[in-house]
Write a structure and sequence with these properties.
The chain has 311 residues and is of the alpha+beta class. It folds into three domains: 10-97, no CATH class; 102-233, Band 7 domain (Tetrahydropterin Synthase, Chain A, 2-Layer Sandwich), CATH 3.30.479; 238-297. The protein has helices at 12-36, 39-55, 157-162, 167-185, 201-216, 235-274, 282-297, and strands at residues 10-11, 59-62, 66-72, 75-80, 84-87, 93-98, 102-105, 110-111, 114-115, 122-124, 127-128, 134-137, 143-154, 221-233. The radius of gyration is 38 Å and the shape is rod-shaped.
């Protein structure tokens, strides 16, 4: 693990004044030495110009929520995390790391920008495609499509640069792997109140955040939030699963109807018996129960048949 060292460099404004003085002093010494024939003054003037040129590479402007990682001939010196105008050792190698909050959707592809090698002009801007859902099997073996949005930021610049090759690509790949692993541990849907991908979005998001954070700790990245952005059965079984869900809904509705109908029949029989409205033997009671259940549980309106008497 790489420990981050925070540097507090000197302000660049004081060194800017020194550079302006060197800018005036160097040519003056060279001209004066040439006029009076003093080689020492010419050498001092040349050294002043060289010092000015080298000093210009030490100026560094850091924007808010940006950082600069400083290296001296391959050795890590420290990181500037404070915004402002600074001057550091001109021989430091400076690498920029953004500390801003970033987000991406799993399955997206990033195309890096292309620059002209000769002029450095950007020919093609950096482009990121829309996220494509990943196809994976859930715990029950059903193929599903799933994608997630991951919100993250760099918190350790040293680890981000030195522990992994490309921390942005590392975040994308590890988030995709964590999402696939999570989807394979839980069913798409559940009826016994266990954690499922569709019914327990909060718990699933918290587990996904913990899994992604565990994988990204070594890259100096803090995962702020993860959310499932797309969840559906794969196209080859979507129609069959829709019929299954509809059947389960019908069965559940019928169970509710039957439960309510039985209660209503029991209440009717108790009421008739308590008020002595009519005396029913077991055969008539059974017939009445059957008729009431047919009326109450039928999905259509009952058609009454009126007994007009014997002919």
């Amino acid at each position: 693990m790489s420990d981050e060292k925070t540097l507090h460099p000197a302000t660049g404004w004081a060194m800017l004044v020194v550079c302006l003085l060197l800018l005036a002093l160097g040519p003056t010494l060279i001209v004066a030495g040439a006029v009076y024939g003093m080689a020492a003054m010419i050498v001092m003037g040349i050294l002043s110009v060289v010092a000015l040129f080298i000093s210009l590479f030490g100026f560094q402007a850091v924007q808010p929520n940006d950082a600069r990682v400083l290296l001296l001939f391959g050795d890590y010196v420290g990181s500037i995390r404070k915004s402002g105008f600074f001057w550091v050792n001109p021989f430091y190698t400076k690498k920029r790391v953004s500390l801003r909050v970033r987000n991406f959707e799993t399955g997206s592809v990033t195309t890096p920008e292309v620059k002209d090698p000769a002029t450095g002009k950007v020919l093609t801007q950096k482009v990121r495609s829309a996220g494509r859902p990943s196809k994976v099997n859930d715990r029950d073996g059903n193929p599903i499509e799933i994608s997630a949005v991951v919100v993250w930021k760099v918190v350790n610049t040293a680890e981000a640069l030195f522990e992994v090759d490309d921390y942005e690509d590392f975040v994308a790949v590890q988030s995709e792997a964590a999402l696939r692993s999570l989807a394979s541990r839980h069913p798409y849907d559940s009826e016994d109140h266990e954690i499922s991908l569709r019914g327990s979005t909060t718990e699933v998001s918290e587990q996904l955040q913990a899994d992604v954070q565990e994988r990204l700790d070594k890259a100096g990245v803090d995962v702020i939030e993860t959310r499932i952005s797309h969840l559906a059965y794969a196209s080859e079984i979507a129609a069959a699963m829709l019929q299954r869900q509809q059947a389960q809904a019908v069965v559940a509705a019928r169970m509710k109807i039957v439960e309510g109908a039985v209660g209503m029949v029991q209440m009717a029989l108790d009421h008739l018996s308590r008020d002595n409205v009519v005396q029913l033997n077991d055969e008539k009671r059974a017939a009445m129960v059957a008729n009431l259940l047919v009326v109450l549980c039928s999905d259509r309106h009952a058609q009454p048949v009126v007994n007009a008497g014997d002919r």
